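Weekly structure sync, notes
Attendees: PL (lead), two postdocs, one rotation student
Agenda item 3: pending single-chain targets
PL asked that the sequence for the first pending target be pasted directly into the notes so everyone works from the same version. It is reproduced below exactly as submitted, 316 residues in total.
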Amino acid sequence: MSRPQNLAVTATVALAAVATLFGVAGQAAANSGPSAAQKSAEVVLKATGTEDLAVTVATDTTPARASTPVATGTVTVTAPRTAAAPVTSQEPSFGGFGLSLDGATDTTGTRTPDGTVVYPAAKPSTDFAVQATKAGGSRALVTLKDRSASNVQRYKLDLPSDVRIAPDGRGGYDLLKQMGNALVGVGHIDAPWAKDDRGKAVPTHYSLDGNTLVQSVDTNEGTAFPVVADPHFTWGIVTGTAYFNKNETRTIATRADWVGLIAPSLPFPFNTVVEAYKEFIKTYAQHAQQMNMCVKVKSNAQVGIYGGNDGDGYCR
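Predicted structure, written out during the meeting:
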């Protein structure tokens, strides 16, 4: 998934709406100045824009909730009432996923008209924000307000017991679940990004500490603060991947009845993709077998060959 674009016109409209919501238009705002929530929202929207944001609603228990249809059902993303609680995603086939900012305070979230929820001063010199996205995902954004903010942010991941996390080889992580005759990608954490106040990319990377995602942001003396950094995760099959191991690849390559053996155990939409493209997938499996590798199929019908550490080393 590509990084969000800063669309100037959209952002300007959104910021005007933010100003109205927080009461900064008019004489009262002129006297008191912008609120901490408004300033936090302005910084976040400058970095992300609003083009890919999902429609959210507020409820009695959450400042923002978005329900987005995906291939397997509906993903519901919920922004927490306070920064200390987890951002959650729920999907009927795979259960729930949660992400929380380690060390955050109980500061209450405020929802802007575009659906962004901001938590000013969630940590020392650090704001927090949550945005639900149209693909069934969520951005958890930290704003490092000045040089005293920590360059290392830790996010606790709450995963179902049968889901594991594995590097995707591109700086992000796949969330994988064994489903029948395949290891299926049921979620994804994109490679991280960070931007300074001039819109310049700031080097950043992830590491894992158990089930804690650690983001390091490499600021220097030339960095213009504030800096916005973003873990973006998607829960539920959007363009996930079904990985087949060597035995399963051999079955696909050599058995005439392989679709009947494998497809019924796969979740939708992989079962229908396999049925529709069975001869194409079989050809790929034959090539993979000759190369001592394995075949993989994406839910959007892209077929490939993989090996090594891909799919958490499932090609064995």
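Discussion points:
- Helices lie at 8-21, 27-32, 36-48, 246-254, 258-262, 270-276, 278-290, 310-313.
- The first strand starts at residue 64 and ends at 70.
Action: rotation student to compare against the earlier draft before next sync.
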